[in-house]
Amino acid sequence: MHFTTVAVAALTGFAPLIEAHYTFTQLLVNGAPVGRDWQYIRQHTRGYMPTKYGEILENDFRCNTGAGSGANTEVYTVKPGDKIGMKQGFGANGIEHPGPAQVYLSKAPSSVKSYDGSGDWFKVQQDLLCKSGNAQALKTDAWCIWKKNNIEFTVPSNIYLVRSEHIAIHGAHDKQAEFYYSCAQIKIQGGSGSSVPTGVKIPGVYKIDDKAINFSVWGSATTYPHLPGPAVAAGGYTTGSIDGTTTGTTTAGGAAQGGSPVVQGDSPAVQSDSSAVQSDSFAVQDDSSAVQNDSPAVQGDYSGAQSDSPAVQGGSPAVQGGSPAVRAGAAVNAGANAGADPGAYGEVKGQTNGQANGQANGGQWWKGHWSDHW
């Protein structure tokens, strides 16, 4: 099986300040780095800081702050079946926050460089739980994405905008979920047919009160039943399951996920027919966020002032406007919700939550359905 890879990892150079933050800066094709940082991935101005819970209704939630277009970003050509991914910058190498990961795609109406992502998005990949029956593991390595530096999915024919995202939920119980994502611009050659799945809008894919992004991993829960966002499009992939009893990758419309029923997204799916406009380019947007820190002692201030976030410039971490607000030892007790364990997994150095989307659905949406322009 061929997958698109979205690399996610932990920070190294800035680990003393912010151990839980990361971003994606370099394209991977079939497992190998391609080009330089930001050559094929839209450069944003958030640096390695996450998008916070209260910002998910903003337009910047599509490709990140300052990445509404990609005029200065090149387009890389790949083939259906190639592995495509986005690699973390700043030397990060492994997700260490609990939470799901997912990949969204959106069709560019003409040039992907000018596309702002305002069209429909549909989900093609989600990574859930790969370990079952352990409440402690739900806080760490039960998640399929744990300690991985990439998110993988199969590249269908002619897709234009791909958004890979990781949602860290270690602070979600206190309305502190965090989102990590980026966008790469890619042209996919080949294809057949012209059908495109209906999709959702970003922002709008999640609601502030969605259970999936307000979920607590600090009680006795061993499953993650409320998955964010829409179902995976027909023919898309799910790795793991809501209860961890399934650890492999299944195709939407194929094998059931785990032993428990999936509670399909709390967010309303803003459905529309996105099959009208055709183009030769597509951008891969990286939503894969990295989970960071293995065992923080105090549930900390997950936010960290983003106005002080370091800007990623050409792969070099340039701290702009002063030091990041989240500093070692500046932990703030997030408070324990019902069933929360305020001392079990906290943030001494300002960690972040990220959230992933996930639902499975049936069918084969890209095999034999996509035109050479899609």
UniProtKB/TrEMBL annotation:
- This protein's species is Aureobasidium uvarum
Q: Top-level EC class, please?
A: oxidoreductase
Sorted UniProt keywords:
Carbohydrate metabolism, Cellulose degradation, Disulfide bond, Polysaccharide degradation, Secreted, Signal
The EC number(s) attached to this protein equal 1.14.99.56
Tell me, in one coarse class, where this protein mainly resides: secreted
Signal peptide bounds: 1-20
Keyword Lipid metabolism part of the UniProt annotation: no
Q: Which cofactor does it need?
A: Cu(2+)
Enumerate the catalysed reactions: [(1->4)-beta-D-glucosyl]n+m + reduced acceptor + O2 = 4-dehydro-beta-D-glucosyl-[(1->4)-beta-D-glucosyl]n-1 + [(1->4)-beta-D-glucosyl]m + acceptor + H2O
**Where is the sequence biased in composition, kind Polar residues?**
286-296
Q: What is this protein called?
A: AA9 family lytic polysaccharide monooxygenase
Report the domain remarks: Has a modular structure: an endo-beta-1,4-glucanase catalytic module at the N-terminus, a linker rich in serines and threonines, and a C-terminal carbohydrate-binding module (CBM).
